[in-house]
Design a protein that fits this description.
- The structure holds three protein chains of three kinds.
- Chain A is mainly alpha-helical.
- Helices cover about 70% and strands about 0% of the residues of chain A.
- Chain A has eight helices and no strands.
- In chain A, helix 1 packs antiparallel against helix 2 and helix 2 runs antiparallel to helix 3 (about 50-75).
- Chain B is about 75% helix and about 0% strand.
- Chain C is mainly alpha-helical.
- Chain C is built from 25 helices and two strands.
- In chain C, a hairpin with a 4-residue loop joins strand 1 and strand 2.
- The relative contact order of chain C is 0.07.
- The chains are: A mainly alpha, B mainly alpha, C mainly alpha.
- Chains in contact: A-B, A-C, B-C.
- The interface of A and C includes residues 91, 109 and 114 of A.
C-alpha cells in the first residue's frame, strides 16, 4: 500500500461521501456545498494524475463559476422546498437496483484481465515529465489538432449565453392586437 | 520523492468514476428538485472527466486532458441554459418540482 | 417481282395513317355541315390498301410461292432451351392475298357508302336530341370524325390479322378488331331516347357492345390457351415453322405437359378444339353467337363491314390457315363441321321469324358462316374461302341496301311529319321504327335502285344460279354430301330456310302496299350511297367466275392450293346442284304464296304466326339468350354481388378492417400510450435501463 494509494483512498472516500451527501440532503444550499467539496476532491485527483492545468480549470470554472451560478439560482428561487412524498414510489427501488448494477458493471470492467492488462501498460509505469499536463502542453494540442472543436465550443458558449438571456427576458407587451384580449404580462 | 510512489492503479480510478457516476444517476432519478437534478448531472459529467484524465495519464496522451477541457466548457454552457430554463418555468408554475411538469403525457 | 412484295407493310400503314390524320385534323376537315373531308380521308386510305392488295396479287402472279416481308423484330427472347421469337412479319401468300383483297376491296366500298350514310345518320340523331345550329354542327363534326377514325382502325386491324405470319400477330389483330367492334357497336352509346319497351336506347347500345366484347373474350380465352399449347408443343408460333414441325413429327410423339405426357395427336386435337372455341366467338357460331344480333345496334356500315363481310370471317380464315393442324385431327374437323351445320340450321330458322330488317340479315350472316365452317371443317378449304368472298359481296350489299331502305324510311318519316300534323307513323300504337319490316311495304315504287340491288343480293344469297352464291354454296354442299350426311342434311335445310326468309323479306319490304305513312313518303337514297350498292351487286352477279367448278376455270382453287396444303379443288355434281336450286326455288315459291300473293296489310299479323308456339319459339331466337341468362349471367351476377357485398364489404371491410384491425390498433395504442407518462424521471429511468442492458451484454460478451 503505497503512499499514493492511501492518499487516493482518503480522497476517494471524501468524494463519495460528499456525493452521497449531496444526494440525500434536503436543503439545496447544503447540497450545493457538498458538491463543491466533491469538485475540490476531483481537482486534487487531477493533480495526482499529472494534470495541473485541469486542476486549476476545475476549481476556477466548476467550483468558481458553475457552483456560484447554482447558488445564485437557489437563492433567487428561495430554495423552494420540495416535498419528499413522491408520486412515483416504485421509482426508488428500481433506480437503486439499476444503479447497483451499474456499479457492478464498472467493477467487472475495471478488474477484468483484458482491461487490466492494458491499463498496466509500460507507459503507465513511466515517469511523466512535468511538461506533460502543463498549460503549454495542453495548449499546443488544443490549438493544433483540436482547433475546430475549440472554435465550435466557442460558438456554443456564445449561443448558450444568448439562449440564457433570451429565455429569461420578459416578453414585450403585445402591440398588434387591439382587440378585447388583455395584454398579459410575460409568460404567466 | 519518486513519482512512482504516488502511482495508483488505473482501475481504481475507473471504479471511483463508476461509483460517482452511479450516484449521479441515482440523483437524476430520485430527486424532484430541478436544481438538484442539474447538480447530479454535473456530478455525472465530473465522473466522466475523471475517467478521461486517468486514461490520459495511463497512455500519456494529452488528448484526454483536452477532452476534459471541452467537457467542462460544454457543461458550463449547459448549466447556464438549464438554469435559465428552470427560472423561466418557475415564473409560470411557481414550483421547481419536475414532477409537476407532466403535461406532455400520452 | 420480288421487290414488289416489299411494299406490303403499306397495306397496314395506310389505314393507320388515315386514322391518325383524322384524329389530328379531322375536325378541321369539316368546315360546314355538308363537308365530307374525314370520310374522304378514310376512304382514300382504304383505297390505298386495296391498291396495295392488288399489287400483292400481281406480285404473286409472278412468284406464287409468296414471300414473308419482315417489318421489325417484336419479341426475341433467347432462353436456354426455350426461346421465343416473334417478328412483325407480313406473310403474303395466296391465301392472305385473297383475304386482303376481300377485306380492303369491300372495305373501301363500304367506306364510300358510309360517307353519305353517316351524314344522314348523324343528322337524324342530332334532330332526335333537339340539337340545332352550331351545336348540331359541332356534334356532327365530332361524331363523323370519330366514326371514320374507328372505321380506319378496324380496317388496319383486320389487315394485321390476315397478314400476320405468326399466331401472335394474328391474335393482336384478333383483339384489335374485337375492340373496334365494341367501339363501333356502342357508337351511339348516349342516345337518350327510349324504345318501344321503355328502355333507353343508349344503354341498350352500350350493353350490346359489352355483350360482344365479353362473349368474344370467352372465345379469346380458348384461343390463348391454344396459342400457349402451340408454343409449348412446337416451340414457335410462326405458321410455317409450326406446320413444318407438325407434319414432320409422328403423331405418337409424347409431349411433356406437366405430370402428363400425351401423344402429339391428342395435343393437336386439343389445340384445334381450342382454336375452334376462339373461332366460334369471333365468327358467331354455336355456342358464342349471341352477340351478333345485338351488334346490329351499331350503324349500318358497321354491320356491313364488320359483322358481315370481314371480322366475322376471321375464324374461317384462321381455320383455313391452320389446315395442317386440322388435317392431323379429324375429330376436330368433324366438330367444326357439325357446329357449322347446326348453327346454319338454327339461325336460319330464327331468321324466318324476325321483324327487324337488320336482324334477319344478322341471323343470315350467322347461318352463312355456319356454311363456311362446315366447309373448312370437312376439308373443303377452297369452298369455304370461296364462300367467304362471295358472301362478303352479297351480304355487304344486302346490309348497305337495308341501310338505304332505313334511310328512305327515315326521310319519309320526316317529310310526313313536317307536311302533316300527326307525328306517329307506323302501325297503330307502335312508335316509328325505321327498321321494322311491318312498317314498310311497297317500297319498290319509291326506291327502284335499292329494290333491284336488294333482289340481286337476295337471289345470290339464296343460291340461285348463275349468281355468285350458287357456285360457292354449291361447292360446300358437294363437300358435305361427300363427307357427312348429317352436315349435308343440316346445310340443305339451312339453304331452304335461307331462301324462305329472303323471299319473305323482299315481299314484305318492297312489294304490296305501304303499311305506314313513312313508307308512303319514302324516297331513294343519294348516288353517293347507291353507287357502292351497284358495284357490289355487279360483284355478286359475276363473283362466281372466280371458281367455276369446271375444268380449267378453277382459278381460286388452283390459286389457293399453293398456300393451303390440304386443299382440293371442287368438282361438279349435277345432283347436288339441282337439289339445292330446287330447294331454293321452292322456298321462294312458298314465301310468295305467304307474302307475295296476298301482301300484308297494315296491322295484319304475320301469316307464319298461325303456327303459334313454333313461331314464338323462333321469334324469341330459340330462347338462347334466356338460357344463357339463366345459366351464366344470373349466377355470375349473384356471385359478383355476393363477393362484393358480403365478402368485400361485410366481411373484409366491416368485420376485419373496421372490426378486428381497427380495434386492435386502437386497443394497443391505448395501452402503449401509457408509456408516455410525461415525467422526465421516467424517461431517464428508461434510458438508464437501456444503458445498463447494453453494458451488461457487452461485458458478458467480451470480458467474461
Amino acid at each position: 500500500m503505497s503512499f499514493g494509494t492511501v492518499l487516493f483512498l482518503i480522497l476517494a472516500l471524501i468524494a463519495v461521501v460528499s456525493a452521497v451527501g449531496m444526494l440525500t440532503s434536503t436543503n439545496a444550499v447544503h447540497a450545493a456545498l457538498f458538491l463543491v467539496t466533491n469538485f475540490v476532491c476531483i481537482a486534487l485527483f487531477y493533480l495526482g494524475l499529472n494534470a495541473p492545468f485541469l486542476a486549476m480549470v476545475q476549481i476556477t470554472i466548476y467550483t468558481g463559476a458553475i457552483m456560484v451560478l447554482f447558488l445564485f439560482v437557489i437563492m433567487l428561487l428561495g430554495a423552494a422546498q420540495v416535498s419528499l412524498r413522491s408520486t412515483l414510489r416504485w421509482h426508488g427501488p428500481l433506480a437503486v437496483v439499476l444503479v447497483l448494477m451499474l456499479i457492478g458493471v464498472a467493477g467487472v470492467m475495471a478488474f477484468s484481465p483484458a482491461v487490466n492488462n492494458n491499463l498496466t501498460s509500460p507507459l503507465a509505469l513511466q515517469e511523466a515529465s512535468t511538461a506533460f499536463g502543463s498549460p503549454q502542453a495542453v495548449g499546443e494540442v488544443l490549438f493544433s489538432n483540436y482547433l475546430l472543436p475549440f472554435q465550435m465550443v466557442g460558438i456554443l458558449l456564445l449561443v448558450a449565453m444568448i439562449g440564457a438571456v433570451v429565455l429569461t427576458r420578459e416578453a414585450k407587451k403585445p402591440t398588434r392586437q387591439p382587440g378585447p384580449e388583455e395584454s398579459s404580462p410575460a409568460g404567466e | 520523492m519518486e513519482e512512482i510512489a504516488f502511482l495508483v492503479p488505473t482501475s481504481y480510478y475507473i471504479i471511483l468514476s463508476g461509483v460517482l457516476f452511479a450516484i449521479g444517476v441515482a440523483g437524476v432519478l430520485l430527486r424532484r428538485n430541478a436544481i438538484l437534478l442539474l447538480m447530479s448531472v454535473e456530478l455525472m459529467l465530473n465522473s466522466a472527466n475523471l475517467a478521461f484524465a486517468a486514461f490520459s495519464r495511463t497512455f500519456l496522451d494529452v488528448g484526454g486532458q483536452v477532452f476534459v477541457f471541452f467537457v467542462i466548457t460544454v457543461a458550463a454552457a449547459e448549466v447556464a441554459v438549464g438554469l435559465a430554463l428552470i427560472v423561466t418555468i418557475f415564473h409560470t408554475k411557481r414550483s421547481i418540482d419536475i414532477d409537476e411538469l407532466h403535461a406532455m403525457e400520452g | 417481282m420480288n421487290g414488289l412484295f416489299s411494299i406490303a407493310p403499306l397495306i397496314i400503314a395506310a389505314p393507320f395513317a388515315g386514322m391518325l390524320v383524322n384524329i389530328a385534323f379531322g375536325r378541321r376537315l369539316m368546315p360546314n355541315k355538308d363537308s365530307i373531308g374525314p370520310g374522304l380521308v378514310a376512304s382514300s386510305m382504304a383505297g390505298v390498301s386495296f391498291l396495295v392488295a392488288l399489287l400483292m396479287f400481281v406480285a404473286l402472279l409472278g412468284s406464287p410461292q409468296g414471300a414473308d416481308v419482315p417489318v421489325l423484330t417484336w419479341i426475341d427472347i433467347q432462353g436456354g432451351d426455350i426461346s421465343l421469337n416473334i417478328p412483325w412479319t407480313l406473310k403474303v401468300d395466296t391465301l392472305s392475298s385473297v383475304m386482303m383483297l376481300v377485306v380492303s376491296g369491300v372495305g373501301t366500298v363500304i367506306h364510300v357508302y358510309a360517307i353519305g350514310y353517316m351524314h344522314g345518320d348523324i343528322d337524324e340523331k342530332a334532330y332526335l336530341r333537339g340539337l340545332h345550329g352550331e351545336e348540331a354542327l359541332d356534334f356532327k363534326r365530332r361524331r363523323y370524325v370519330k366514326f371514320f377514325t374507328f372505321f380506319n382502325l378496324f380496317l388496319g386491324s383486320m389487315l394485321i390479322l390476315v397478314t400476320g405470319n405468326n399466331y401472335l400477330m394474328m391474335f393482336v389483330g384478333w383483339e384489335l378488331v374485337g375492340l373496334c367492334s365494341y367501339l363501333l357497336i356502342g357508337f351511339w352509346f348516349d342516345s337518350p331516347e327510349a324504345n318501344e319497351s321503355g328502355k333507353i336506347v343508349g344503354v341498350l347500345n352500350s350493353e350490346a357492345g359489352k355483350k360482344a366484347f365479353i362473349v368474344n373474350r370467352v372465345g379469346d380465352f380458348g384461343m390463348l390457351l391454344a396459342l400457349m399449347l402451340i408454343f409449348w408443343t412446337f416451340g414457335t408460333l410462326k405458321f410455317d415453322d409450326v406446320f413444318a414441325r407438325a407434319a414432320a413429327a409422328a403423331p405418337t410423339t409424347p409431349i411433356p405437359l406437366g405430370p402428363f405426357t400425351p401423344a402429339l395427336g391428342a395435343v393437336v386435337t386439343v389445340i384445334t378444339l381450342l382454336l375452334l372455341l376462339g373461332a366460334t366467338g369471333k365468327s358467331a357460331q354455336i355456342p358464342l353467337f349471341v352477340w351478333l344480333p345485338d351488334a346490329m345496334a351499331g350503324p349500318t356500315p358497321v354491320s356491313a363491314l364488320i359483322h358481315a363481310a370481314t371480322m366475322v370471317t376471321a375464324g374461317v380464315y384462321m381455320i383455313a390457315r391452320s389446315n395442317v393442324l386440322y388435317a392431323m385431327a379429324p375429330v376436330s374437323g368433324m366438330t367444326v363441321a357439325v357446329i357449322g351445320g347446326l348453327t346454319a340450321f338454327v339461325s336460319g330458322t330464327i331468321a324466318v321469324a324476325q321483324f327487324d330488317i337488320k336482324r334477319v340479315l344478322a341471323y343470315s350472316t350467322i347461318s352463312q358462316l355456319g356454311f363456311m365452317f362446315a366447309a373448312v371443317g370437312l376439308g373443303g378449304y377452297i369452298a369455304g374461302i370461296f364462300h367467304l368472298a362471295t358472301h362478303a359481296f352479297f351480304k355487304a350489299l344486302l346490309f348497305l341496301s337495308a341501310g338505304s331502305v332505313m334511310h328512305g324510311m327515315e326521310h319519309g318519316h320526316h317529310a310526313m311529319a313536317e307536311g302533316e300534323n300527326g307525328g306517329g307513323g307506323g302501325d297503330e300504337g307502335h312508335p316509328f321504327d325505321p327498321q321494322d319490316m311491318r312498317q314498310m311495304g311497297g317500297l319498290h315504287k319509291h326506291m327502284k335502285t335499292t329494290t333491284w340491288v336488294y333482289i340481286v343480293g337476295a337471289l345470290a344469297l339464296s343460291g340461285i344460279p348463275p349468281l355468285a352464291g350458287f357456285w360457292s354454296k354449291d361447292e360446300i354442299l358437294l363437300e358435305a354430301s361427300l363427307n357427312s350426311t348429317l352436315v349435308y342434311v343440316l346445310l340443305g335445310a339451312a339453304t331452304f330456310f335461307t331462301a324462305l326468309y329472303m323471299g319473305r323479306q323482299i315481299f314484305m319490304v318492297f312489294f304490296g302496299s305501304e303499311r305506314s305513312e313513312a313508307a308512303r313518303h319514302a324516297h331513294e337514297s343519294p348516288p353517293l350511297m347507291t353507287t357502292p350498292l351497284i358495284v357490289l351487286a355487279v360483284l355478286a352477279i359475276i363473283g362466281g367466275l372466280m371458281n367455276l367448278p369446271f375444268g380449267g376455270f378453277n382459278q381460286l382453287g388452283h390459286w389457293l392450293e399453293r398456300s393451303v396444303v390440304n386443299a382440293h379443288t371442287g368438282s361438279f355434281n349435277i345432283d347436288v346442284s339441282i337439289t339445292s336450286t330446287v330447294l331454293g326455288l321452292l322456298a321462294i315459291g312458298i314465301s310468295y304464296l305467304l307474302y307475295g300473293r296476298k301482301p300484308l296489310e297494315e296491322g295484319q299479323r304475320d301469316p307464319l304466326s298461325t303456327t303459334g308456339p313454333v313461331f314464338t319459339f323462333l321469334n324469341h331466337k330459340w330462347y338462347w339468350d334466356e338460357l344463357y341468362d339463366a345459366l351464366f349471367v344470373r349466377p355470375f351476377n349473384r356471385l359478383s354481388e355476393f363477393l362484393a357485398n358480403t365478402i368485400d364489404w361485410a366481411f373484409w371491410h366491416d368485420f376485419v378492417h373496421d372490426g378486428i384491425i381497427a380495434q386492435f390498433v386502437e386497443g394497443s395504442s391505448r395501452s402503449l400510450r401509457r408509456v408516455q407518462t410525461g415525467y422526465v424521471r421516467n424517461y431517464a429511468l428508461a434510458v438508464l435501463l437501456g444503458v445498463v442492458a447494453i453494458l451488461v451484454y457487452l461485458v458478458v460478451r467480451f470480458l467474461v
